[in-house]
Amino acid sequence: MGVGLWRFTLSAFAGLLVFFLRFCSSEKAPNYSFMHQATTAPAISYYDYIIVGGGTAGCPLAATLSQNYSVLLLERGGAPYGNPNITDMGAFGAPFADVSPSSPAQRFVSEDGVINSRARVLGGGSCLNAGFYTRAAADYVEAVGWDSGMVKESYEWVEKVVAFEPPMLQWQSAVRDGLLEVGVVPYNGFTYDHIYGTKVGGSIFDRDGHRHTAADLLQYANPTGLTLLLHATVHKIIFRRKGVARPVAHGVIFRDALGHKHKAYLKRGSKAKSSEIILSAGALGSPQTLMLSGVGPAQHLKAHNITLVLDQPMVGQRMSDNPMNAIFVPSPVPVEVSLIQVVGITHFGSYIEAASGENFAGGTSQRDFGMFSPRIGQLATVPPKQRTPEAIAKAIDSMSKLEETAFRGGFILEKIMGPVSTGHLELRTRSPNDNPSVTFNYFKEPEDVQRCVQGMQIIEKIIDSKAFSKFKYDYLTVPALINMTLNFPVNLLPKHDNASGSLEQFCKDTVMTIWHYHGGCQVGTVVDHDYKVIGVDALRVIDGSTFNYSPGTNPQATVMMLGRYMGLRILMERLGRDLSK
């Protein structure tokens, strides 16, 4: 393959991974009378429930609890509304390229060398992801012990606001037909359900390309029962330890955008004995907050001079991130703009998805290649100390001079279920604004590698299928596409010479995140089956940090469902106790 073609295809992959498409008008902000800047908060306040984290689980949880009790929802970021980089499909990827302190996406790099991101915005990860909406499998629901009827009702409650059937155009249809041609059957049509075979899933993008997030679920809230504070960073949970059998959470300390300290406490009195603090800060934020509050491995907390409340060695353990691997396919014909819409659910534990887009400049004068771009310093072929602003600017300038045809094509990806491989999280500093150190140990376990290899073999067959032939250059063989993908700087890992001939090595060398990381506060080790933190009172964790493995092909639907589901359970339990009195 000539140098010009390599430059063309690699750059196309860069543009494709950002999906910088046509811009749409940003969604207007709802009239949430309960939403305020934290700077307006009193120095001390009291509530029935305090929820830390206005994300994918925190928003539906707060909306539900507010129906009968006073709720304080603390979100460290701002609102998503009025920001086209969040609300418009055409700007997907832009938040990942924004590394400013005000960005809705806070970038972090795992100790494995994979660039990742955590949400810093009301609505959490639902404001940043590719929008795919699909439920957990029935056996997942059964395994974790949820009530299937209430789960179904909770999913439907979410779906009335945020889920839509996506339009099926040529690229996605070709991938769907290719999946069926190579044996990922049966075809299950459009469904939110997790069923073996090929299906069209839901999307949180409507047909106008506008994103609908977990923040939209706050329209269900009782406005007199909810107080939502933006740019409110929780520094620690306050525990009462004197005169009680074990520590009792009874308040939080948070700071506003100006750095002013505020304290919020649970209400006192006999009727307030059921009041609780609930962590919904995500798979990084929840274990981090527990540790900063003195709940975690004793020796680790001692090393950071944090007063020990409870020695809980499993906080931050068994962190997992579902690895993603992809093959880029440059197209000889224009393709439609599409995010994840079709999925092939295999019996061997790999999920096959795809995305596409034409003219990634989106008709704008400035090109931005997003999360996988030199714009944010991701130059795997350049040593870290040489990733200077000048080198980054040079790479950006080179990409900006490419012909428009370089931004045409799509990629087919696979994500493994589980995963089996796990890692851990530790504090770097005592500041809640700093990312913790996290290691996911991608592909440490052979079972994960084997699932990836089988998934990549399916992708190879799809690329060579009759159904997909229209979108592939005849002279570009699958090995050539694999070689091309290997040369793209998708992570900071070293590349191996044998990766082009070994799918096992290809999986390891080209691993990326699909932002489905979880764990750190898992059920059975850190929290019980009611999501109450083991060893302390009046404290729960309700978010993806409690998952032992990722639900369905994409977890956001289940995280939103969990917020609603547990909100209902808490209400029923407390109302039942109040009525019995």
Structure description:
With 581 residues, this protein is α/β, with parallel strands linked by helices. The protein has 14 helices and 26 strands. The protein has helices at residues 3-16, 58-65, 84-87, 94-97, 138-144, 148-162, 170-181, 282-292, 298-303, 389-400, 446-463, 478-486, 503-509, 556-580; strands at residues 35-37, 44-47, 49-52, 71-74, 105-109, 115-119, 132-133, 187-190, 197-200, 202-203, 226-230, 233-240, 248-255, 261-266, 276-279, 295-296, 310-311, 317-319, 323-330, 342-345, 350-358, 408-416, 423-426, 437-439, 512-513, 539-541. Strands 8-9-20-21-22-19-25 form a seven-stranded mixed β-sheet. Helix 11 (446-463) crosses helix 13. The longest helix is centred in the last third of the chain and has 25 residues, at 556-580.
Name some characteristics of this structure:
six-stranded parallel β-sheet, globular, disordered N terminus
